[in-house]
Every structure is written in structure tokens, then in C-alpha cells.
């Protein structure tokens, strides 16, 4: 069909199409508007933005990869961080980054990316930056790298992307990034305060500043968060050039804790009992202590996120969510101790579980905590809740009710995660896990060697390791 000669005017590089109003229509529209009773707020957003769909997707894929790697990275340090508040907060942040990755992944699928292609994406430059950041010499350096360098750069880049993308056509991306930023603000504020606490406590500020400058230059050398910034020269030397990064295997606690690992029995560790072993008071206190000591579960699930990295995004995400739940359980136990009249640091902290799991292959460590620890809790928690209700013990009834719901969810999610981690059938996995934990508990002195290395039963492991 041939267009009329006057349908538009032509320039050297584009066609400008002029509006052609029909007689009386514009005047009629103005009259209808004048007679309309409601004066709604004006939407002032305008069409136009800096990014094509292709460029938008390139940036979002890079954002996704940074968030996924931060989830992995923080998980790898959960054993090594000694400070209670920092370990707990790190358990939260692992999930914040996992959730950010999930939001970005979902948006990428709406921009013609298949999930398999998103999950298969790798960036060696970003990986190198992450490994160098993880080579921090102290937890304070870790916070500087994760939050004050990388985290702040990510938050700034997300805000710029929100400003620069099309405010009308790309609203889903804008909403995605704004949702992520709701977690970034409190996370970065906490990190600044935590770094200040380290400095006030004696960590040398100059060394942290040197590390901050080093990582900032390294990030700039790979084009920043977007990859589109001007690239500078990378700093030399890098720590990973001398010693490649490896995650820690030894659980650490700060000096406020009195720790033990030679037994899983609190009464044995305390050397003197407070209540008769089978009394309600004793069972109540053991439950509360077990929740506070789920600081070891933060270590376990965080480590699993690192150990199975890139195997399956959904499994990583579920592990990150469980890590966050365990951080909440630790808080619950800590606050329940306070509400029960204790100084939480007067009650000894059990390291038995983490000492065994830390060096262990991920599948067996996961099997122990899922098949024995969490299942063990579910065997007894219903009776505990009922007894607490009968005794009008609202504190214990309330916290155990929420914990029961979490543990049921963890057992269900754990079944699929174990399928990702191991090719063994359930029976073989359980048997090998029992063997490994028997060996570990013997080495710790938690059980005597005169059992002739017979493999412990499920119930014995539930009792001796505990969750």
C-alpha cells in the first residue's frame, strides 16, 4: 500500500510522523475533559530511557551474578566469623542477596532469557574479585569488602539504573530494584556501625582503609557493577595470587562465650545440673539453649551454600532461606534466655555439631542436620508445646510454635536439597552419615572408643549432636 505524500516529513536519519486530527475531535475531547468531575494526580513519568532491552538485560544479568556470588561468599565465611552479632547478621544477609538474585532472575526471564541460560552464566572477572574480597584477613576486612565496597557500589548502581531506564516501559525492572534496595539500606547502615565497632575495639582503621582502597580499585578495573564504567588498572599484587581462597573449616566464637565440644549433653558440659534431668524445667532450658546454639546451624547452612555453588539455583536459594531462619532461631534462643532471667553468655555454647560438620563433605553434613537434627526436633516438639500450654508457659509455647513451623519447612526443603547434593539413596546416605559422625564424636571424646567403633543409632546421634 502506497502512503500519501503528506503523511510525514523526512530527515537524514529518521522519519517524523505528524499527528493528523480529524475535524472537531480535539475540541470535543477538551469539552469532555472540562466536564469530568474528578481531578486525579497527574502521572508525570515520560517515555524514554538510556537502555534497549538487550542492554538492560546485559546489566541485569551482571547484577544477578553479583548477588548470587555475594550469597555464596558470605556463606563461606559463616564458620570463620567469631563475633556473635556479626555471624547472626551475616546469616540474614545471605538470604537478602539470595532474594535479590531471585528477583533479578525472574525479571530476566521476562526479557527473553531462559532460566538455564541465566543459571549457567559465569563471569571470571567477577569471580576473581569475589575471591580477593574473601581473602580478607579479619571479619572487619570482610565487612569492608562485602558492604562498604561492593554493597555500596551495588546500591548506587541500582539507584542510577532506576533513574536511567525508561520510567514507563521498564517499570518491572524499577520495581524489582526498589524491592531489593529495601534490604540494602538497613544492611549497609548496620555494616557501617559494625566496622565502627571493630575500630573502637582496637582494629586498626588504617589497615581497613588500605583494604577498602585496594578492593575499590579492583572493582573499577572490571568496569564496576554495571561493567560499563571506565576501567582503571587493577592493583598489584592480589592476595589470591599468593594463596588461592579456601573457606574455613573450624567454628569460631568470640570471647564472651564459654564453649565446649567434648559432649553434646549440656548437663555434662556444665559439670553440675540445675534441674532434675527429666523435669519440665530441664527440658525447657535445654530447648532454649539449643535454639541459641543454632548459631552452629547458621554455619552449617551458610557453608552448604558455598559448597554446592552453581549446582542448582533453587537449592542455593532454599539453603539461604534456611540460613536466615536459623539466624532467627538463634535470636529467639538468645532473647528467650534473657526473658527467662539468664545472661545468655553465662550458659555454655555447644560446638560439637559444627566441629564435626565443618570439614565434612557437604552431603553428609547436610544429612546429619536434616535427617537427624531437624527430624529429631520434630519428634519431641509437639509434646513440648502441649506441656507448655498446660503449664501456662506462654514464652515457651509461643517460640516453639514458630520453630515447629520452620523445622517442618526445613525437613521438606531438605529432601530436595539432599537430592542435589548426593547421588546416594536415602538409606546409604544415612548410614554413611552415621559412620562419619560416630568417628568424629569419638575423636572429640563425646563418646568412648570402647564401643569398638560401632555405628551410632539415629537416636544416639540426635542426642549427642543435637540441633
Relevant terms:
mainly alpha, single chain, Heme Oxygenase, Chain A, 2% strand, 2 domains, Ferritin, 467 residues, 65% helix, two-stranded parallel sheet, two-stranded antiparallel sheet
Q: Can you describe this structure?
A:
It is a single chain. It is built from 18 helices and four strands. By secondary structure, it is mainly α. The strands form two sheets. Strands 1-2 form a two-stranded antiparallel sheet. Strands 3-4 form a two-stranded parallel ribbon. α12 packs antiparallel against α13 (313-339). 39% of the residues are buried.
What can be said about this structure in brief?
The protein has 467 residues and is mostly helical. The protein has 18 helices and 4 strands. The termini are far apart.
Q: Could you give the count of β-strands?
A: 4
Runs with pLDDT <50, length 5+?
none
Amino- and carboxy-terminal Cα gap:
76 Å
Shape: globular
Give the strand content: under 5%
- Tally the helices: what do you get? 18
Q: What is this structure's SSE topology?
A:
Elements: E1 8-10, E2 15-17, H1 25-35, H2 53-76, H3 84-109, H4 115-120, H5 124-134, H6 139-164, H7 171-200, H8 205-220, H9 239-242, E3 259-260, H10 266-270, H11 280-292, H12 295-307, H13 313-339, E4 349-350, H14 352-357, H15 362-390, H16 394-421, H17 426-444, H18 458-465
Parallel strand pairs: 3-4
Antiparallel strand pairs: 1-2
Helix pairs in contact: 2-3, 2-5, 2-12, 3-7, 3-12, 3-13, 6-7, 6-8, 11-13, 12-13, 12-15, 13-16, 15-16, 15-17, 15-18, 17-18
Amino acid at each position: 500500500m502506497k502512503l500519501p505524500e503528506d503523511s510525514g516529513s523526512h530527515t537524514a536519519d529518521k522519519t517524523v510522523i505528524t499527528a493528523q486530527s480529524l475535524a472537531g475531535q480535539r475540541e470535543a475531547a477538551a469539552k469532555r475533559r472540562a466536564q469530568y468531575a474528578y481531578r486525579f494526580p497527574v502521572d508525570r513519568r515520560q517515555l524514554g530511557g538510556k537502555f534497549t532491552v538487550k542492554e538492560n538485560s546485559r546489566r541485569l544479568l551482571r547484577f544477578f551474578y553479583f548477588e548470587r556470588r555475594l550469597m555464596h561468599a558470605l556463606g563461606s565465611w559463616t564458620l570463620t566469623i567469631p563475633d556473635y552479632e556479626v555471624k547472626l547478621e551475616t546469616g540474614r544477609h545471605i538470604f537478602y542477596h539470595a532474594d535479590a538474585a531471585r528477583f533479578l532472575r525472574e525479571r530476566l526471564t521476562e526479557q527473553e532469557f531462559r532460566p538455564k541460560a541465566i543459571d549457567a552464566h559465569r563471569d571470571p572477572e567477577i569471580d576473581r574479585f569475589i575471591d580477593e574480597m574473601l581473602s580478607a584477613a579479619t571479619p572487619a576486612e570482610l565487612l569492608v569488602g562485602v558492604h562498604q565496597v561492593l554493597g555500596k557500589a551495588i546500591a548506587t548502581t541500582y539507584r542510577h539504573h532506576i533513574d536511567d531506564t525508561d520510567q514507563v516501559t521498564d517499570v518491572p525492572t524499577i520495581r524489582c530494584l526498589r524491592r531489593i534496595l529495601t534490604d540494602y539500606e538497613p544492611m549497609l547502615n548496620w555494616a557501617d556501625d559494625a566496622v565502627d565497632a571493630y575500630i573502637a575495639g582496637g582494629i586498626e582503621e588504617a589497615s581497613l582503609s588500605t583494604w577498602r582502597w585496594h578492593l575499590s580499585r579492583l572493582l573499577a578495573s572490571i568496569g564496576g557493577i554495571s561493567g560499563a564504567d571506565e576501567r582503571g588498572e587493577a592493583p598489584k599484587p592480589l592476595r589470591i595470587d599468593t594463596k588461592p581462597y579456601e573457606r574455613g573449616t573450624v567454628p569460631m566464637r568470640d570471647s564472651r562465650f564459654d564453649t565446649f565440644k567434648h559432649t553434646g549433653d549440656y548437663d555434662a558440659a556444665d559439670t553440675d545440673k540445675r534441674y532434675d534431668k527429666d523435669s519440665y524445667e530441664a527440658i525447657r532450658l535445654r530447648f532454649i539453649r539449643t535454639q541459641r546454639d543454632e548459631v552452629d546451624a547458621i554455619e552449617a547452612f551458610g557453608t552448604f551454600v558455598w559448597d554446592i555453588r552453581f549446582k542448582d539455583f533453587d537449592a542455593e536459594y532454599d539453603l539461604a532461606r534456611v540460613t536466615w531462619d536459623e539466624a532467627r532461631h538463634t535470636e529467639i534462643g538468645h532473647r528467650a534466655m534473657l526473658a527467662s532471667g539468664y545472661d545468655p553468655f553465662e550458659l555454655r555454647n555447644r560446638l560439637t555439631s559444627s566441629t564435626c560438620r565443618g570439614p565434612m563433605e557437604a552431603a553428609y553434613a547436610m544429612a546429619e542436620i536434616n535427617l537427624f537434627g531437624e527430624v529429631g526436633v520434630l519428634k519431641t516438639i509437639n509434646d513440648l508445646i502441649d506441656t507448655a500450654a498446660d503449664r501456662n508457659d506462654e514464652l515457651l509455647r509461643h517460640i516453639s510454635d514458630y520453630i515447629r513451623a520452620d523445622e517442618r519447612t526445613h525437613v521438606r526443603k531438605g529432601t530436595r536439597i539432599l537430592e542435589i547434593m548426593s547421588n546416594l539413596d536415602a538409606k546409604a546416605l544415612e548410614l554413611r552419615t552415621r559412620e562419619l559422625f560416630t568417628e568424629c564424636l569419638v575423636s572429640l571424646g563425646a563418646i568412648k572408643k570402647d564401643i569398638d567403633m560401632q555405628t551410632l543409632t539415629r537416636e544416639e546421634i540426635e542426642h549427642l549432636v543435637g540441633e
